Amino acid sequence: MTKIVAVTNCPAGIAHTYMVAEAIEEKAKSLGYEVHVETQGASGVENELTSKQIAEADYVILAIGKGLTDSDKARFDQKKVVELPVSEALKHIDTLFDDLEGNSHVMTSSKVKLGADQEVVTEGIMSYLMAGVSAALPFVIGGGLLIAIGSLMVQFGMPNTPLAKGTSPSIAWVITSIGNLGFQFMIPIMGAYIAYAISDKPAFAPAFLVTFLANDSDLLGTKSGAGFLGAIVIGLSIGYFVKYFKKIKLGKNFQSILPFMIIPFVTLLIFGLLTYYLLGPAMAWLMSVLLSFLQNIPTSMKIVGGFIVGAMLAFDMGGPINKTAWFFSFSLLSSHVFNWYGIVGVVTLLPPMAAAIATWIKPNLFTKQERAASWSAFIVGSTVATEPAIPYALAAPLPMITANTLAGGITGAITILLNVERTAPGIGIFDPLLGLESPWYWFYLCVAIGLVLNVSFIIIFKGIWLKRKEEKEKQAA
């Protein structure tokens, strides 16, 4: 019996990670293979592969979206590996197992290759940035929920008394203050994990401390912190600096202390001073300019920006374009700019929910399998997991992607115009109930408008597409 082990991960660690793991497991079992799948998601590593399972495996499948650490790569050294981006795994699941031998390559701990000479990119700027976002998510989710709870307590009449001499703080103030810590530390964590994704543990502490420094406006004497721009620049700079620093050979006496003593000390010293005198003030100035621009741009430009962000979010349903718009919107949360992330909360609901509703209204436009999957797409999609829309888009790329993108763009423009704000990632359609999306009435109005537009576009565009397809088939016959 063929034995397979697999690892799945994605930048957010929420949807793709588990959907792809399930798909690999089901497909492998249907072929009579023994399979074990490890997920590296938002909850951490689950179903971790044992050394015995890896040793006995004939092939390793890596469906990854945020790369692998050096220690992960070492686990699969000299194994036959098939690697593909996690965003592509669902698209190719039916053919993934067709030629494992031909599509695999013996892995070395330094790189992975697919086939004879094609190197698969498991590293790259966006991969590193999304690794930082993935680490920051729990800080924002936990912090955002606590702030929402504190706000709800005050709205229901509970006191919001701060800490002062001779006065005990109220529970609402304490909960809100704890929540604020999540937003305070999300940027240092983002910078630290960007560096960690590039060069592993030696880069983590210096990147965390230096990014924290860059966002301490009191210490730097700046009007604002460096924000996510500082996290990106510092995380990448320290990550690549440490990556090449690790290659230095110091001899047997000092080589053993290089990663945990020399590298962190030297890196922190160099980048600490550099950030205090140059990078921190420069990034803080840029961040102030960006925030001022976003807050003061005319309504017409804001609508155009909302359209672009909304269209990007809906275009490739969890792909690189979607992630770029998501990263921009999410990163502004640390600066308490919530309306761009409000677009995310609305638009990411639309493609799967609209596809499901369209199957109910016009079932003749869809296959039996698509109709059967509609309830699953609707329910999962309502929790801001756009991936259930992918099978519908693969079946009819031109009409479905066009409908999603156009509806997403228009809805994004309406959402930014109505100033819908989302303070943290949540559970989609229920976010207003948790106090994470407001005003609740504009949120639900935007979702309703978006769904009407998206469903209408799907029915119109796919109807035209199927009609032309039938005409071409008749002509060919």
Automatic annotation (TrEMBL):
GO terms for molecular function: carbohydrate:proton symporter activity; kinase activity; protein-N(PI)-phosphohistidine-fructose phosphotransferase system transporter activity; protein-phosphocysteine-sugar phosphotransferase activity. One of its GO terms (cellular component) is plasma membrane. Its EC number is 2.7.1.191. Residues 125-473 form the PTS EIIC type-2 domain. InterPro entries: Bacterial_PTS_Sugar_Transport (IPR050864), PTS_EIIB-like_sf (IPR036095), PTS_EIIB_2 (IPR013011), PTS_EIIB_2/3 (IPR003501), PTS_EIIC (IPR003352), PTS_EIIC_2 (IPR013014), PTS_IIB_fruc (IPR003353), PTS_IIC_fruc (IPR006327). The chain crosses the membrane at residues 135-158, 170-196, 226-245, 257-279, 299-317, 338-361, 373-394, 440-465. This is Protein-N(Pi)-phosphohistidine--sugar phosphotransferase. It comes from Companilactobacillus bobalius. The lineage of its organism: Bacteria, Bacillati, Bacillota, Bacilli, Lactobacillales.
